[in-house]
């Protein structure tokens, strides 16, 4: 909606039976205000049955002509300069209707009305003048509006380009892709091309790679500031290192942060006085003279999956959304966008329950939307997903996957009444131009064929990195080479790795298998426990651990070489019988089905005997779980439910861990804790690593 700027003085002449002298406006009247219905309120206090006259001075901006009618037969004309437009005597308890039948603002004629509401009680009067008030009021011009919303979520400190396997003509092809330099380039391109662009980050900017472990958000802030987001909502992982570290990160950002369901007022670190830019529940942007609200919602999962300070108060996501939306609508705002770090399924539920929301840009669940089947990727729904609100109005829900791999671009069109009439868009997968098949760069002909296919795809694009952001990142990449050598702990002895128990390449016999893999599992267990996930055990596949950790200093680089994949830690709810089944299936995968030796299972929190002389499916002959209350080992209860940690690859059923893959959605949680960083946290905590001597594996090899 367009805005008009109203400058007015209100002179209130009180006819009194008392001979009192003049009093000031501050003593008798509050500051005038305009409500959501565009009524002008001048709250004043006067004696009973007193009459008063009101004189309003009106001026339209931009030298436009305006008509101000105070109930006279014909409108009184106001010149572009301030002048008197009319006076009306009114009795106590009545309202004065100020009606503007025609107001020419910015070349458009519209119709609206204002009401002056006067509270008259408890105060003896006199003559006084209200101070001049400048108020920016929404006018009643109704016109369509188009917005182009660019959004990312859950980039988790993934700042530089990575590799992905895609399918072109059915052939698996490794492609370099993503990275913030590509993201910045695509955003810059669209900002210059589309109508009314707004750029948002939907939370979990930090935690997950070496760039966070080493720079604690500084590198993220540098590239995020270069993009210059219009707003960001806090995700749960923003709180992983506590309020004080979050304060440091936020004070490096140069754009607004919105989060409505957390009260920061009592926080020692995050109250407004401690932040360069206070965290607001929402912001309102003027787009083509119309107000667009952007609201932030954080997931309550933060309370159990991260480390927010106890001086923060969290409120229910849905109830907060209802309250904030009602507040915005009361202000006359009917275009409302939510940035919700809440999860795809929960956000659809929010759209069904909260009237007044137009768009939900989501995060937390790392959801890929849109059709990417042509390149071999599977999504979880359409982009956008359209949900019907309680008013039976469309709500557009959109996600942009994870790690800066995709830039979401949603075009939303509103009608005269602020209702969404069209909602469509494209999430773009940001590719580089290096293609490998079978480990080798493709030849020129194949390259040209792949490039031609990509050019025909609406949501896959080769993007040249932005040079400015590339230069920013280069400074941090250089430092990584030095900082990755930073020592985080020490190995008391050689922690050798072997996938299946037997002889190590050094000639050392490892009868019970890897010495480092169980420590990796313990590290994951500690990470889950420290974040209140309350794990019972962790299972780690041997192939997910890549090197020996030799005696001496353990560095950052050691950890990321040991655990080089982009895995995260999952928590699964499983019965004791299912835990045994997943161990059996991991063994079957290699010993019976010819699968990778990397499927051999190592663990922490359980101990078990593997007897290779038994039949397939019956090799786990002893299986015990440590009781967390008594710290004693006891036989696993096949009927009981256990909370099992593992890496994301195994959780999906990889390496033959089929029982993991069968765990239903409602019983599995991706914590999005980077598994290498989780191990780093464990090493820093214990400082020295030695082989685990409590529990673990007993391996009985097959006797020929």
UniProtKB/TrEMBL annotation:
<protein>
    <submittedName>
        <fullName>NAD nucleotidase</fullName>
    </submittedName>
</protein>
<dbReference type="GO" id="GO:0046872">
    <property type="term" value="F:metal ion binding"/>
</dbReference>
<feature type="domain" description="Calcineurin-like phosphoesterase">
    <location>
        <begin position="148"/>
        <end position="367"/>
    </location>
</feature>
<dbReference type="InterPro" id="IPR006146">
    <property type="entry name" value="5'-Nucleotdase_CS"/>
</dbReference>
<dbReference type="InterPro" id="IPR004843">
    <property type="entry name" value="Calcineurin-like_PHP"/>
</dbReference>
<keyword id="KW-0378">Hydrolase</keyword>
<dbReference type="Pfam" id="PF00149">
    <property type="entry name" value="Metallophos"/>
</dbReference>
<dbReference type="Pfam" id="PF02872">
    <property type="entry name" value="5_nucleotid_C"/>
</dbReference>
<dbReference type="InterPro" id="IPR036907">
    <property type="entry name" value="5'-Nucleotdase_C_sf"/>
</dbReference>
<dbReference type="GO" id="GO:0000166">
    <property type="term" value="F:nucleotide binding"/>
</dbReference>
<dbReference type="InterPro" id="IPR006179">
    <property type="entry name" value="5_nucleotidase/apyrase"/>
</dbReference>
<dbReference type="GO" id="GO:0008768">
    <property type="term" value="F:UDP-sugar diphosphatase activity"/>
</dbReference>
<dbReference type="InterPro" id="IPR008334">
    <property type="entry name" value="5'-Nucleotdase_C"/>
</dbReference>
<keyword id="KW-0732">Signal</keyword>
<dbReference type="GO" id="GO:0009166">
    <property type="term" value="P:nucleotide catabolic process"/>
</dbReference>
<feature type="domain" description="5'-Nucleotidase C-terminal">
    <location>
        <begin position="511"/>
        <end position="660"/>
    </location>
</feature>
<feature type="signal peptide">
    <location>
        <begin position="1"/>
        <end position="25"/>
    </location>
</feature>
<keyword id="KW-0547">Nucleotide-binding</keyword>
<comment type="similarity">
    <text>Belongs to the 5'-nucleotidase family.</text>
</comment>
<dbReference type="GO" id="GO:0008253">
    <property type="term" value="F:5'-nucleotidase activity"/>
</dbReference>
<dbReference type="InterPro" id="IPR029052">
    <property type="entry name" value="Metallo-depent_PP-like"/>
</dbReference>
<dbReference type="GO" id="GO:0030288">
    <property type="term" value="C:outer membrane-bounded periplasmic space"/>
</dbReference>
<dbReference type="InterPro" id="IPR006420">
    <property type="entry name" value="NadN"/>
</dbReference>
């Amino acid at each position: 909606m367009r805005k008009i700027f109203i400058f007015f003085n209100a002179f209130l002449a009180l006819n009194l039976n008392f001979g009192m002298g003049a009093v000031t406006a501050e003593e008798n009247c509050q500051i005038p205000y305009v409500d959501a219905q565009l009524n002008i309120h001048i709250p004043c206090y006067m004696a009973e049955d007193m009459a008063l006259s009101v004189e309003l001075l009106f001026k339209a901006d931009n030298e436009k002509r305006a008509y101000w009618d105070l109930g006279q037969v014909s409108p009184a004309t106001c010149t572009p300069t301030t002048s008197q437009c009319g006076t009306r005597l009114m009795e106590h308890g009545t309202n004065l209707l100020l009606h503007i039948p025609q107001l020419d603002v910015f070349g458009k004629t519209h119709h609206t009305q204002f009401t002056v509401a006067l509270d008259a009680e408890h105060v003896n009067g006199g003559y006084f003048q209200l101070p001049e008030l400048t108020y920016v009021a929404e006018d009643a011009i109704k016109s369509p509006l188009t917005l182009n919303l660019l959004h990312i979520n859950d980039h988790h400190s993934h700042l530089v380009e990575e590799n992905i396997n895609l399918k072109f003509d059915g052939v698996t092809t490794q492609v370099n892709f993503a990275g913030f330099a590509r993201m910045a380039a695509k955003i810059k391109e669209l900002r210059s091309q589309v109508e009314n662009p707004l750029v948002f980050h939907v939370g979990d900017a930090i935690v997950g790679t070496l760039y966070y472990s080493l720079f604690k958000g500084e590198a993220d802030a540098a590239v995020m500031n270069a993009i210059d987001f219009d707003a960001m909502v806090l995700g749960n992982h923003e709180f992983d290192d506590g309020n004080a570290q979050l304060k440091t990160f936020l004070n490096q950002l140069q754009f607004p942060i919105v989060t409505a369901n957390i009260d920061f007022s009592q926080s020692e670190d995050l109250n407004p006085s401690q932040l360069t830019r206070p965290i607001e529940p929402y912001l309102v942007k003027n787009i083509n003279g119309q107000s667009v609200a952007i609201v932030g919602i954080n997931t309550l999962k933060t309370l159990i999956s991260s480390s927010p300070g106890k001086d923060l108060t969290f409120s229910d996501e849905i109830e907060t959304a209802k309250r904030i939306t009602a507040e915005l609508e009361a202000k006359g705002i009917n275009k409302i966008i939510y940035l919700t770090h809440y999860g795809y399924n929960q956000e659809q539920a929010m759209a069904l329950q909260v009237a007044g929301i137009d768009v939900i840009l989501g995060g937390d669940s790392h959801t890929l939307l849109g059709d990417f089947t042509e390149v071999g990727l599977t999504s979880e729904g359409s982009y956008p997903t359209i949900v019907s609100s309680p008013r039976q109005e469309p709500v557009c829900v959109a996600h942009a996957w994870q790690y800066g791999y995709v830039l979401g671009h949603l075009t939303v069109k509103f009608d005269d009444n602020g209702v969404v009439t069209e909602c469509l868009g494209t999430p773009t997968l940001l590719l580089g131009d290096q293609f490998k098949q079978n480990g080798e760069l493709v030849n020129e002909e194949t390259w040209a064929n792949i490039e031609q296919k990509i050019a025909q795809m609406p949501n896959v694009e080769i993007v040249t990195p932005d040079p400015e952001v590339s230069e920013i990142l280069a400074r941090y990449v250089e430092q990584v080479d030095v900082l990755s050598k930073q020592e985080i702990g020490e190995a008391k002895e050689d922690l050798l790795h072997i996938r299946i128990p037997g002889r190590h390449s050094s000639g050392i016999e490892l009868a019970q298998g890897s010495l480092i893999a169980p420590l990796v599992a313990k590290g994951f267990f500690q990470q889950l426990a420290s974040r209140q996930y309350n794990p019972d055990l962790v299972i780690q596949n041997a192939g997910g651990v890549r090197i020996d950790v030799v005696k001496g200093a353990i560095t950052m680089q050691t950890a990321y070489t040991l655990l080089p994949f982009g895995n995260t830690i999952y928590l699964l709810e499983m019965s004791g019988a299912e835990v045994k089944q997943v161990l059996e299936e991991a063994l079957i995968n290699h010993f019976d089905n010819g699968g990778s030796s990397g499927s051999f299972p190592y663990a922490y929190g359980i101990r078990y005997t593997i007897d290779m002389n038994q039949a397939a499916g019956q090799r786990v002959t002893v299986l015990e779980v440590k009781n967390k209350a008594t710290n004693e080992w006891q036989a696993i209860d096949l009927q009981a439910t256990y909370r099992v940690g593992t890496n994301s690859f195994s959780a999906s059923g990889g390496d033959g861990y089929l029982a993991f893959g069968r765990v239903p959605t409602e019983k599995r949680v991706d914590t999005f804790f980077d598994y290498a960083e989780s191990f780093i946290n464990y090493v820093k905590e214990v400082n020295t690593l030695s082989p685990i001597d409590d529990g673990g594996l007993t391996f009985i090899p097959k006797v020929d």
